Amino acid sequence: MGTGDWGLGIRGKGKGEGGKGEQITDTKRQLPITNHQLPITNYQLPITNYQLPMPNAQCPMPNAP
């Protein structure tokens, strides 16, 4: 460490961050803030009573009505 490092070590050099006793952690990184919004629609999926064919289905009660 040089005379102007103030005990920050390698991570604080040349970043413009510093000060006596300041800790530099990864939590100080800020994510870019954007105003992008996901499209929200009221599109409804068609709901039908269509029965899917089940060729291998076995009824547990063969005599069920």
Question: Can you characterise this structure?
Answer:
The termini are far apart. The protein contains no helices and no strands. The protein is low in regular secondary structure and 65 residues long. The chain is elongated, with a radius of gyration of 32 Å.
Which helices and strands occur, and which strands form pairs?
Layout: no helix or strand
Q: Sum up the overall morphology in one term.
A: elongated
The CA-CA distance between the termini, in Å, is 87 Å
Radius of gyration: 32 Å
Number of strands: 0
Instruction: Tell me the fraction of residues in β-strands, as a range.
Output: under 5%
Mean of pLDDT:
65
The helix-and-strand class reads little secondary structure
Biggest sheet details: none
Helix content: under 10%
Low-pLDDT residue intervals, each spanning 5 or more residues: none
Counting DSSP H or I runs of 4 or more residues, the number of helices is 0
In short:
This protein has no helices and no strands. The chain is elongated, with a radius of gyration of 32 Å.
Short key terms for the protein model shown above:
single chain, little secondary structure, 65 residues, elongated, 0% strand
